[in-house]
Amino acid sequence: MLWPGRKMGIFHGFPGRTRNDTQDRLSSRSHSAAARGFRPAAGHPRLARTQPAANGRSPLAVVFVTVFLDLVGFGIVIPLLPVYGERFGAGPVAAAWLLAIYSLMQFFFSPGWGRLSDRVGRRPVLLIGLFGSALSYLAFGLGTSLAVLFLARAAGGMMGATIGVAQAYIADVTPPQDRAKGMGMIGAAFGLGFIFGPAIGGLLSRFGPEWPFLGAAALSAANGIVAYFRLPESLPPAARAAQPARAGLRARLATVVGASPRLRRLYAIGFLTTLALSAVEATMAMWAVRRWMMTQEGIGYGFAAIGLVAAIAQGFLVAKLVKRMGERRSAMLGLALLAIALAAVPLAPTLPLVGAALALWAVGQGAATPAVTAMISHQAGPAEQGRILAASQSLSALARVLGPWWGGIALAHVSLAAPYVAAALLIVAALTVLALAGSSISSTPSAPMGAA
């Protein structure tokens, strides 16, 4: 899915160069970057924000289209993946692991890609992820055994572990006051991708069961080619981190455990929110069938409606809320609406009321998620954006592994409403953490972020 780096030999800063040689190269590249549209960012003399180039292209618009097309490819295959796995003997447990292994690989690889992007730039990491995703989709569509499908999904998760890098790109090209709006665009791309992707996958499946995966491969490859020519680098050489890109498990744990108290609280909020939502999203189809006897077509329309409302909320509502209320209060409002909606879904006596609760869910998620991500991005300097945002995505990936597991247990062994009630309580816990943190949690620390 989204996106790793080029061979290290193409990047500046090799051992053996003199300090003057490196400074001369950085100086010349900085001047070249300025000529292409880079401008110094307020409050950080070394960072050059990417402004619209002379031809009028906005880097924010380009990365939005890149993420949107990538999520369309992801949306093409996700609804059909368990059914496709059954052709190779995958039972319900194996089909669930075909989904979970993707998130598990994201958990392991997100911090490494983020740290690498801080050192070599965002663009090469995003590009290799796109082309790598194309190869993983192709292998899945052409696979002849269940083992090949698992390997292809694992590779796809590794290559798709770059959402944090895309978020770091947004942080690079937006000033702090517009950060939540930029992160909202990523959320809108997710929502739109999950509207168009399943529809395209359904059309392609008419030509054969493997065609949706081959179509996703073609789309990812085309997206990579377009991004190669259209996507500019957002992190100038002078603003990049000089330390080696350590990506071991100990370094990943240190990123979270060794972070500042404010950042740890924000990580906890993101983890609890994703843990709650992934549980109900994974069990919603089974709940809809058992509670309302809905068909697969009806379930698909329901997910599309959630995606549409979430895309509208994250694309348009977030900026207005943050401007009026600030990021922390916007996130608190979103979490409160989300908790109410999750509790209301299983209690609604009619389908129209279920639809109203789902719409409230989408609005709450659309308001909370970008604001929390923006607050996380404020907790580090430019050279650490990739690392801390990738750590956040890694924790979210872990939550997406655990969420379907506990949600399925709650649905099967407690009650149909249990996943929703438990998820609402998790959201309340996240809201409590944010409320107790105080208003300073949304501010940028005056000192560099703690060890990570």
Descriptive account of the structure:
By secondary structure, the chain is mainly α. Helices cover 73% and strands 2% of the residues. It has a single domain, classed as Up-down Bundle (Growth Hormone, Chain: A), CATH 1.20.1250.20. It contains 16 helices and 2 strands. Strands 1-2 form a two-stranded antiparallel ribbon. Helix 7 packs across helix 15 (385-413) and helix 11 packs parallel to helix 15 (385-413). The longest helix has 32 residues, at 261-292. It is globular, with a radius of gyration of 21 Å.
| Main beta-sheet annotation | 2 strands, antiparallel
Helix content: over 70%
Q: What class would the helix/strand composition place it in?
A: mainly alpha
Q: Can you name the CATH architecture? A: Up-down Bundle
Spell the H/E element sequence: HEEHHHHHHHHHHHHHHH
Taken from the alpha-carbon principal axes, the silhouette is globular
Strand adjacency order, main sheet: 1-2
The CATH topology turns out to be: Growth Hormone, Chain: A
Please tell me the overall pLDDT. Answer: 78
Instruction: State the oligomer.
Output: single chain
What is the CATH domain class? Mainly Alpha
As a whole number of angstroms, the C-alpha radius of gyration is: 21 Å
The CATH H-level superfamily is MFS general substrate transporter like domains
The low-pLDDT segments are 1-56, 446-452
The helix tally amounts to: 16
Tell me how many strands there are: 2
Strand content: under 5%
For the terminal residues, how far apart are their CA atoms?
A: 27 Å
Number of domains: 1
